[in-house]
């Protein structure tokens, strides 16, 4: 990215809120490193060879669960010396099967060369380690398993035709 502060909103929208699975997949290929990691309160993906595809699977399942996601970026700060990009925004997310209005959730992230997306230090693992240290590894395993399950469910949904990447070059727009 030439100008991370100016471009990040477009990247965030393409990765999380686009209406096209092809645009989402192309954005991952263009902006995310192959060895990226992902930490979220309900799942995590450990950085490693080709982990980008696993993170993409989580985002694809996320879109199956909530076909319409709205995001507003409130502030962006780039610390050029440390190569850190701080992003704060609000996201409206609603599970497809719940008859309720979307709920806003404030997000604070920092991105490091787009190789790792961290929402916050992992609260689940940190809380488990604080409360009962011996269960922290089990919580970490459960979060990793949840990431795997997200990928399997995303692939199943794609087999059924939901949020399926068709690799249509005319739809990419990235």
Largest sheet: 6 strands, mixed
Order of helices and strands: HHEEHEEEEHH
- Which CATH class is shown? Alpha Beta
Q: How many β-strand stretches?
A: 6
SS-based class: alpha+beta
- What overall form do the CA principal axes indicate? globular
Q: How many whole angstroms does the radius of gyration measure?
A: 16 Å
Indicate the CATH architecture: Roll
Strand fraction = 15-25%
Query: What is the residue-mean pLDDT, rounded to a whole number?
Result: 82
Instruction: Extract low-pLDDT stretches.
Output: 112-122
Strand order of the largest sheet: 2-1-6-5-4-3
Instruction: Count up the helices.
Output: 5
Number of individual domains: 1
CATH topology name = Nuclear Transport Factor 2, Chain: A
User: Helix coverage percent of residues?
Assistant: 40-55%
What separation lies between the terminal Cα atoms? 12 Å
Domain SigF-like NTF2-like: 1-162
